[in-house]
Amino acid sequence: MSDTVTACVLIIGNEILSGRTQDVNLNHLATTLGGWGIQVHEARVIPDVAETIVDSVNEARQRFDYVFTTGGIGPTHDDITAVCIAQAFDVKLIEHPEIAARIKQRPTPDDVMASRLLMARVPEGATLIDNPTGGPQGFAMHNVYVMAGIPMVMQGMLSTLEGKLRSGLVVQSRSIRAYLGESTISQTLGEIQNRYQAVDIGSYPFFREERYGTTLVVRGTDPTVIDAAATAIMQAVIDAGETPEDLGTNV
Amino acid sequence: MSDTVTACVLIIGNEILSGRTQDVNLNHLATTLGGWGIQVHEARVIPDVAETIVDSVNEARQRFDYVFTTGGIGPTHDDITAVCIAQAFDVKLIEHPEIAARIKQRPTPDDVMASRLLMARVPEGATLIDNPTGGPQGFAMHNVYVMAGIPMVMQGMLSTLEGKLRSGLVVQSRSIRAYLGESTISQTLGEIQNRYQAVDIGSYPFFREERYGTTLVVRGTDPTVIDAAATAIMQAVIDAGETPEDLGTNV
Question: How many domains, chain B?
Fold first, then answer.
């Protein structure tokens, strides 16, 4: 068992790739899973195309500890995620009695109910992910977690997984803001990165209040090393003639 | 030559995967390229890890007509995109005289200049993508277009490519808003999709002004078929007892 637990996020939906919809699910997943000790190492945005979904799921579930999908579990013809997950695992698609029971709580004409019950379909052997917003549940198949695309619903489903997933080392960060150009400090920064190889140092330039600057972010799993690298970075900023601003941890 | 021109977007940067930064580049690329007749068929968010970048570039440039990357072309140690593209194409990394000339326009101490000149490195044989914000240019290597991660800079670079890329059929859309549940209309919608296979019909539920509804979006390259499918959808909404709201094209 590794100390690092990894995840891949698969964002399923033509509407993201057409530009109609701005994805916000990746950011929420990255932040939340990160806090639980699961590091998102890759994300893919893929269309509502069965072959692409099946291939992407099969590749991702081999390469990463966890796969989290969003989108494509509604009742319309373009909601093909459940079918594709079943195909990826080569199992039957079944109607899950618990989801069906929840759907049937709200009475509706027969033909509409038939459509709604499409949302009860899961691959055989799947377990459920509860949906605190009251709608149909999501599901998990081995290491693949299948959730809704609507951010509010996805966030609700994800919240029910807290404490239930395998957890690795939590990546923490410390950020330092410096009003100087990246190039002014980049050589020293590279040296600090070499000295503290247990952390990742990122440099993110910005323009605010009419001034250019860069935010220097140290990320790692050992707070002692993070702080040592951050101290070295702050000294480098001072040596460059500027005053570093310590933004603190995990901001 | 195909009527459909496809693209893959590679968003390079740990800061997106950690959740520190919300990506907005994919949405801008999808919308802009879509308008030019280039369809974004996949996007990947990948970390600042050389092997991952090289592999992703090599896979994407075979599978798609174009690849657009954002991020990792600054002057710091974590800016490894240019090195990786050179490696992906198995060519040398050179200092491009035009980028170097632009960088040298602004005087700076020698050690800082050495860092800034890292941004002049491109794979041998690359052509430049101009940078209207005045900073170092991006570059293109065959079908791979390498741009900055900062949205303002990326958008500036992208704007200079207008009219210079191979263009296919432009995907257009027409959207209809209906205040009814997806399930109410999903069966009819599936039938309409079957009837008009030249378009993609998407259904996107929403909650606004205290009411649930769904936006039905018809996407395709033939306006006649789009309009025929949209008319059928509006009739289906009427048959379901609601009043469809025609939101028009490309919204």
Answer: 2
> Using CB atoms, which residue from B34, B42, B183 is nearest to A45?
B42
Interface contact B77, partner A, CB < 8 A: yes
Residue contact A23–B19, C-beta within 8 A? no
Taking an 8 Å cut-off on Cβ atoms, the answer to whether A78 and B201 are in contact is yes
Query: In this structure, are B102 and B192 located in the same domain?
Result: no
User: For residue B29, what is the nearest residue in chain A, using CA coordinates?
Assistant: A19
Q: Which of B129, B159, B189 is the last residue of a domain?
A: B159
Asked if the C-beta of B116 comes within 8 angstroms of chain A's C-beta atoms, the answer is: yes
**Following CA atoms B86, B90, B92, B94 in sequence, which dihedral angle do they give, to the nearest 10 degrees?**
-30
What Å distances lie between residue A234 and A192, A230, B79, B114, CA to CA? 11, 6, 21, 22
Tell me, yes or no, whether B164 lies in a domain: no
Asked if B205 lies within 8 A of A150 by C-beta distance, the reply is yes
pLDDT tens track, chain A, 251 positions? 459 999 999 999 999 999 999 999 999 999 999 999 999 999 999 999 999 999 999 999 999 999 999 999 999 999 999 999 999 999 999 999 999 999 999 999 998 999 999 999 999 999 999 999 999 999 999 999 999 999 999 999 999 999 999 999 999 999 999 999 999 999 999 999 999 999 999 999 988 888 889 999 999 999 999 999 999 999 999 999 999 999 999 87
Question: B167 in a domain, yes or no?
Answer: no
Give the contacts of A73 (CB within 8 A, at least 6 positions apart): A79, A81, A82, A119, A136, A138, A146, A147, A148, A149
pTM of the model: 0.96
Residues of chain B with C-beta less than 8 angstroms from the C-beta of A18 = 30-31, 34, 40, 171, 173, 219
